[in-house]
Amino acid sequence: MHGSTFLTILLALPLLGLSSPLSIRWNHHYYDSAYHTLGCPSTTKPHASHREQLSVLNNFANLVYVQHNVAQGYNTYVAKDFINHAPEISGNGTAIAIATQTPMLIGGHVNLQRVFVGSDENDVDYGTVHFQGFSVRFGEGDIAGIFKFVGTCVVEYWDVAQGVDRNSTKNPIAYFK
Ligand SMILES: *[C@@H]1O[C@H](CO)[C@@H](O)[C@H](O)[C@H]1NC(C)=O
């Protein structure tokens, strides 16, 4: 190999390293390994449009929060070992989420406020469910859940929640109106 050819290859390597993730994405061969390593169920797929993700999130929210078919919702749409940041749940994965959320939901009810999906500037897909919850244990709550998607599979979750103070007079349209 000529010295100059070798040098050219050597110089080109970092450039390839930088540009390949973008070109892979543009060629639709991009594959997020979380889909496999976190155990996405066979009812999901690794690539999806925002419309498809929106349909998933609406189905999930109705199954889990409204109908209390908690296990069915998680087992159909969520990775078995999904990463869970919810402070009320003590670990990752669908098993503990189902076991913790089912008793929190039973006996109460939820009014969905808004469900939407989109991408951040790195093309990572997220969805949000904002809802009014009435729980036997916690009373009325204002809750937003944030779901990270790979394709139609939920791989990570965060939430923020606050109790509803009906005596607050500061804002006549507080919370849900
Ligand atoms: C959940 O997964 C995250 C990311 O892999 C990890 O940092 C965290 O320790 C896990 N939580 C538990 C309770 O294992």
Can you describe what's shown?
The protein is an alpha+beta fold. Helix content is 37%, strand content 29%. Strands 1-5-4-3-2 form a 5-stranded mixed beta sheet. A hairpin with a 2-residue loop joins strand 4 and strand 5 (153-163). The longest helix has 24 residues, at 3-26. Mean pLDDT is 88; it is low at 6-24. It binds 2-acetamido-2-deoxy-beta-D-glucopyranose. Residues 83, 91-92 line the site of 2-acetamido-2-deoxy-beta-D-glucopyranose.
Helix fraction? 25-40%
Number of helices: 5
First CA to last CA: what distance?
72 Å
Shape: globular
Number of strands: 5
Biggest β-sheet: count, sense, barrel?
Answer: 5 strands, mixed
Q: Work out the strand percent.
A: 25-35%
Hetero compounds: 2-acetamido-2-deoxy-beta-D-glucopyranose
| Order of strands, widest sheet | 1-5-4-3-2
Order of helices and strands: HHHHEHEEEE
Radius of gyration: 21 Å
| Estimated structural class | alpha+beta
Q: Which stretches are poorly predicted, pLDDT < 50 over at least 5 residues?
A: 6-24
Mean pLDDT: 88
